[in-house]
Amino acid sequence: MPVITEIEDLKRIYKRRVPKMFYDYCESGSWTEQTFRENCTDFDQLYLRQRVAIDMTGRSTATQMIGQDVAMPVALAPVGMTGMQNADGEIKAAKAAEKFGVPYCLSTMSICSIEDVAENTSKPFWMQVYTLKDDDYMKRLFDRAKAAKCSAAVITVDLQMLGQRHKDLKNGLSAPPKLTPKSIANMATKVPWGLEMLQTKRRFFGNIVGHAKGVTDPSSLTTWTAQSFDQALDWDRIREFRKMWDGPLIIKGIIDPRDALEACNVGADAIVVSNHGGRQLDGALSSIRALAPIMDAVGDKIEVHLDSGVRSGQDVLKAVAMGAKGCWIGRAYIYGLGAMGEAGVTRALEVIHKELDVSMALCGRTDINTVDRDILMIPKGFSGDWEE
């Protein structure tokens, strides 16, 4: 068993173990991938202030996200096709999150269904939904989430149309994936992955097939997906979705302060500052750069979370210091899942927790709830000094 001390260790194993098609799906951004890269590298521009001769005992990373107790301010973000990274991947990730004490958010485009995850876990998870035109499907999706006792709904608002990701097009990665001689040959080299996939019955989009009207096979799914995403989406439409769900609501995909204020107006309980991991509008600001102006705009009107680019406990610490109540991780736990299954997700969470805990202590804080901008050195103009 290799010694895992950082998320990059898991990524290396993941790359060896998982077919290229699914590795590239995870490890890519749109167009030139500028935003995908800067989501990570912009964290490096924030420096931490080390403090000494301060009692570091009795530390706690426990806090709350949307009123729910969490072991640390981290949630597992919704990632489409997680069950293709590792057999029954959504179930494994949800179980690891539950045992660790952090939220898990299931994607609409998951391989395992809401019911599959609910059956294999004992604590409520969050359910992510897209802004689709099919009202009948949307209402039933929310009803299924209620029946599964999901403790929050997450509406993703930055996917009215798909950003172009060159690697996915070249690999034939779509919903469902198009198998080519090249991708089949590559899959044949990933024997442990393949053997596990052969042993599960869950290889299709469990939240859609058999639930969306007319979706019974891969070709009908392709047609439904192409027609369902709502390019006419506006805030009034989001208000309609709010009426379909009376529980805690999180709006994910906010990168501009004006949209953050609109999210407050539709009755959301929290927003996620996110550029979809750099997979939608290339050339957009990184999430960590966008955070401060959004915090300034909304103040304490709404709870603010952040995703995109979070690969370490120090990233979490920096985002919390900038005002976020929590961070969502996607790629960081997918690396672990693809590398080692449920144990790999647990290891990813352990790595992030340890780095968060130690770094917080070395900054002179023993409680994550007391962390603020005082622990940071922020470059002038970090969030931009733009012409009007």
Automatic annotation (TrEMBL):
This protein's name: L-lactate dehydrogenase (Cytochrome)
GO CC terms of this entry: plasma membrane
Binding site for FMN: 78-80, 107, 128, 130, 156, 252, 274, 307-311, 330-331
Organism: Alloyangia pacifica
Domain called FMN hydroxy acid dehydrogenase: residue spans: 1-381
Taxonomic lineage of the native organism: Bacteria, Pseudomonadati, Pseudomonadota, Alphaproteobacteria, Rhodobacterales
NCBIfam families: PRK11197.1
Swiss-Prot/TrEMBL cofactor(s): FMN
Sequence intervals crossing the membrane: none
GO MF annotation, one: oxidoreductase activity, acting on CH-OH group of donors
